[in-house]
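Quick entry, no commentary yet.
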Amino acid sequence: MRDFACRHNLVIYDVGEGISHVVLPEKGHVVPGRLIVGSDSHTVTYGALNCVGLGLGATDVAVAMATGKVWLRIPKTIRIHLTANLNKGCTSKDLALELIRRLSVEGANYKCVEFTGEGVSTLSIEERFTVCNMMVKLGAKCTLMPCDNLTTAYLEHVNVHAFSGFVSDSAAIFDQEIEVNLSSVEPLIAVPHGLTNITTVKSVAGKPITQAFLGSCTNGRLSDLYDAAEQLRGHMVAPGVRFIVTPGSRSVYKEALKAGLIETLMEAGCMIMTPGCGACIGTHGGIP
């Protein structure tokens, strides 16, 4: 990869820089209105910034790089209308699991999942990344969040100033429309041995575990580390449990260090890993 990048004068984010789906938005590469292809299914994450992100196979991505073109079938759209707010203790990951529970793991195969409604404005950009990221578990081809004031503020923070957002037109026909009252969402958990087995956290409270993992392109951002540090401050990880924390990017790691989050997590007995995909990819530290 290094040799290829050097030969073709390409930017490469090397080992330790982090996960593509965390790094690319931070570096200003994800801009509303763009069509972005990547060789990972979670490329759908970029819909959080009002662009079309598509996960393709390695061969398709190679063809896109060589020709600047990609073959697509225009997907049908499922519109999810969000109202109200998430209750304290509930996260955007719970919203994602709720949608998977309702629609099943094939409920959006080769479809676009578009989010609308006043409830969207209550979700931070990081929360939107999490929701869009998880929609691939529905089989979604891509996702789309509106380009609003929060989007603009985030893009300006990462030095992106010229862009134009888009929305479905008034005559759009949706394959399915779903309304979700965010205040009705409960803390949820997917239990072994499949993502279809989603239940409430309270139904499994007290069951012993041997490993916890905080990281990935779904939940390896700064807000996730803040939440974990807040829960663990003054406590210790239970004996016999490995708690592995993998920041999503070098930037997240640096900010967490500045905020004292890494120290709090380490004092609680967590193991801090190099920024990257971590246990998810199956080749890094943290495999059970």
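second:
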Amino acid sequence: MKAKKKFGQNFLINEEIVKKIINSINYEKYNQIIEVGPGTGALSKHLLKKCNPVLIEIDEDAVSFLKKNISEKINIVQADFLKIDLNTLLNNKNAVIGNFPYNISTQILFKILDHKNKIQTIVGMFQKEVAERICSKPKSKKYGIISVLIQAYYNTEILFNVQKEHFSPQPKVESSVIKLRRNSIKKLKCDEKKFRKIVRISFNQRRKKLKNSLKTEIVDFKKIDLDLLNKRAEELSVENFVTLTNLIHQHES
């Protein structure tokens, strides 16, 4: 099957890497495994030996290919993952796995965040630079909005890197497989919508100190912890952003 550029398809062709991805999940812990963008079924054929996965694939040709070459009885939903109602698919304990299309990989994660209390684990292939941003810690140049928003709810880990030649067609970038594990925080100790807003505004002007980048959000600077405001966004942990959100929220007019 020929890869389609509009769907961001780069098919994984190295069987050893496929097995490493498959073996990074303990299947007994989950009621359901969802594979996003199975393509030609490199992961799917191994998943079927472990469980009865739900495959979500947007490409009609890929769906036909999978049914013909993997299994006619495969549980596959032809849909755009970003538009599908996950509430119709999710059980209480779910894991998501996939060689994610790089052009929508961050959007996939943000959609997963909307269902974070039902999706305990994610194992996915990402562009290496994006993987590093997701997993970066404070005081790193790669630490940013997605780092904070994901790490607020998931523990992050880069499992291994994957070179270009292990795909067909070869992407222009290097890749990494990462694993996200749901942490114990069911809900942040602040207004989560305001938290996301504060994080985004803070990093949109990341070179500025927070007292400058957040000046439109703060009613009374005298009532806010100046120690936090004199720092830049990349210096703050998730807990710092929770504290800052509460301080700003408490003193809103």
